[in-house]
Amino acid sequence: MANKPASKGRKRGNSTRHPGAVDGVKGRAGRILAKANQDGTYDTALEQETAVLVAVPDKRQPDTQTQEYLDELAFLAETAGAQVVKRFVQRLEKPDIRTFVGEGKLAEIKAYVQHQDISMVIFDDDLSPSQLRNLEAELEVKIVDRSLLIIDIFASRAKSATARTQVELAQYQYLLPRLTGLWTHLSRQRGGGVSQRGPGETEIETDRRVVRDRIDLLKERLKDFDKQSNTQRKSRGGIVRVALVGYTNVGKSTIMNMLSRSDVFAENKLFATVDSTVRKVVLENVPFLLSDTVGFIRKLPTRLIESFKSTLDEIREADLLVHVVDISHPTFEEQIAVVNETLKDIEAGDKPMLLVFNKIDLYNPEAQVEHHGGFEGMNEDEDAPAARPTLEQLKATYMAKMHDPVIFISAQERENIDELRALLVRHVSTIAQQRYPNVHPITETEEE
C-alpha cells in the first residue's frame, strides 16, 4: 500500500513532511506529488502488510452474498500485497455516520488490531472524509476503503503514460476532500473568527490549490491523449472493431493472446490489465481489430470510470462486444449483471454482443460456495441452493433464453476455440457488410 502507519513514539507536527514533497505540501499529498514528479504515480504494496476486513451489510442481504463480497475484497487486498488475517461483519440498517460501524464492533476491532499488531483495516464500502478521520484516530492504524484499494491496484498495474495519468487523476480526486485529515499538527491552531485564522488552515488551503492545479494539469494531459487516441481510431476506418469486456479476472487477456497470437500480460489476479491493448486479427481471411480492455468490478469507483474515459472509448466505439464470463465463479450471474449495468453507464449497453462462458474446465456443479471462518456476524443461509446446475443444463438454459450468441469455452485448455473463431468470423463478416458496404475487405493474401 502507499502509506505506513506512524509509530506510536514518533513526534507529530512537521514530522509528516516528506523529504521529496513539492510546493510545500505535507503528508499523503506530499508523498503522492513527489512520486508524481518522477513517473506520474506512486508505488504500492512495497511490503506485505497484515489486514482485517470489515463489512456492514444491511439486514436483508443474504449471508452467502456477504461472504462472496468479502471473498472478493480479500482477493483485492491480496492483489495489492496485503495478507488478510480476519474478517468482521456487522449488520446495520445503515452505517454509523461517525465511524461506519457501531461502538461495540469498533471496540472489538480495536482490541483485535492492537493484540495482533495489525497494520491496516480495509472496509468494503467507501468512507466519508469524517469517517476516515474518526477511524484513524480511534484505531491508530491505516484505514483503507474499497475505492482507495482499487485505485492503489490500478496505480501498481498502470504502465502506459495514458494509464498512469488516468490513475494519478483518480488519486488526486480521491485525495482532495480528505486533505483536512492528513495533518495532526492542525489541532494546535488558534480558534476561528475574524483575523484569527491559524497558519495551519492557510497551509491546507495552499495545498488544496496545489492539488486542484495538479488535477487541472492532468485533465489537460488526458485531453491531449484523447486527441491522439481519436486520431488513431479514425485511421482504422473500414475495419470492424471488436472489444473484449467482462468482470475482472475472467480470462480476457488469455483469449486476447490466443486469438491475436500476442503476449498481453495475463495473471490470476484482479486488474492484471489496466492499459487498453489493440491488435489486428485475421481469421479465415476476415480482418478485424481486437481490443482488450480493463475489467469491471462491483462498486467500481466513479472517479476511475471518469478517468479512464479514453480507455472506455474503445468499448463505446466497438462494433461488436465479446462479453467474457467466468462460469466457474459461484456468482457469475451477478457478475454478468454488474458488467451489463456498467456498459449502460458508459452508453455501450445496446451494442451487438457475443457472450463467451470461459473456464468450463474449472466448473464443478457439486461445489458449494466456500465459507471462510475467522470472522463474526455470519449465519448459515437456509435458502442457499444445495447444488449448482450441470454444465449441460446451463448450456441449454442460456442458449434458449439469450437473444445474442452464446458459446462455452476454456481458453486455458483450448476447448471449443475453433467454434469461437468461426462465430467471430460469421459476426464480423456480417457487421462489415452492413456497416462498410463500399469497403473492399483486406484479406490475409492481399497483405502478403
UniProtKB/TrEMBL annotation:
KW GTP-binding (keyword) present: yes
Any one Gene Ontology molecular-function term assigned to this protein's record: GTP binding
Residue numbers binding Mg(2+): 253, 273
CDD domains per record: HflX
Residue positions binding GTP: 246-253, 271-275, 292-295, 358-361, 410-412
Disordered, as annotated region: 1-28
Domain of life: Bacteria
Cofactor: Mg(2+)
Chain ranges of the Hflx-type G domain: 240-432
Record has Ion transport as a keyword: no
Subcellular location: Cytoplasm
Keywords noted in UniProt: Cytoplasm, GTP-binding, Magnesium, Metal-binding, Nucleotide-binding
Gene Ontology cellular-component annotations: cytoplasm
SUPFAM superfamilies: P-loop containing nucleoside triphosphate hydrolases
Pfam families assigned: GTP-bdg_M (PF16360), GTP-bdg_N (PF13167), MMR_HSR1 (PF01926)
NCBIfam families the UniProt entry points to: GTP_HflX (TIGR03156), small_GTP (TIGR00231)
HAMAP family on file: GTPase_HflX
Assembly information from the UniProt record: Monomer. Associates with the 50S ribosomal subunit.
Protein task: GTPase that associates with the 50S ribosomal subunit and may have a role during protein synthesis or ribosome biogenesis.
UniProt family annotation: Belongs to the TRAFAC class OBG-HflX-like GTPase superfamily. HflX GTPase family.
Protein name in the entry: GTPase HflX
Gene coding for it: hflX
